[in-house]
User: Fold Uridine phosphorylase from Actinomyces bowdenii.
Amino acid sequence: MATPHIAAEPGDFAPAVLMPGDPRRAQRIAEMLMDDARLVTDVRGMLGFTGTVDGKPLSVMGSGMGQPSFTIYATELFSQFGVERIIRVGTAGGIAPRVKVGDVVIATGAHTDSAMNQLRIPGVNFSAVADFHLAQAAWEASRSAEAAQDGTVHAGPIISRDHFYFTPEGQTERLAAHGVLAVEMEAAALYGVAAEFGAQALAVLTISDHLLDHSEDMSAQERETRFTGALRLAVAAAHS
Ligand SMILES: O=P(O)(O)O[C@H]1O[C@H](CO)[C@@H](O)[C@H]1O
Ligand SMILES: O=c1cc[nH]c(=O)[nH]1
Assistant:
């Protein structure tokens, strides 16, 4: 049955869903990966597709930007459409000096300045962590002989922030000093919702810019197209 934000029927989604922020990127991914992709939802222009990759079912759907938007879609997918694992494929800003534009980050955990997970268990600072099996599968895919990787693949903690344009003074440097690799805006929410529903989750992120050195930042168009390395790892995790 359709939900307030997804106009699909049970069975329309595969057990594994890739989720980029941008619905147009969802369409591009579906066209790149699948010969048989069909549109399963388009409420609010948030396009979702289902098809097969190498004979295995897979769905791709946009999430929108930010933790509230991601939480709405992930909650409906896990609770109403039989989805068992969600792999976010998004862009992120580099924080650690060794992380370069074009690199890929497998987010094993996500700090956050959002209250969304803090509200889950009163009195508890929730730890937003990726599913170990999915993270391991993505990492192993990055080490495989056939990996024609554009940039370096890193695995480690990121931060999911609410603000895109506002950063408290000195925060980026302090995060870097604490081993944080990159910043984006959704993974902590995804890991929280997955924990709530006993599901699996991972974020595989392409570094589109660097907060401490803007000389190599991607253009808006590059942010939409330079994600094939991360996509390959995400598909490996989805079908592991
Ligand atoms: O490229 P996507 O997946 O949208 O991810 C990043 O880009 C958006 C900000 O430009 C935020 O959603 C952030 O998390
Ligand atoms: O949230 C994000 C995503 C990409 N790049 C950033 O600097 N921040």
The two ends are 28 Å apart (CA to CA). The pocket of 1-O-phosphono-alpha-D-ribofuranose (ligand 1) is lined by residues 20-22, 65, 90-91, 164, 184-186 (CB under 6 Å).
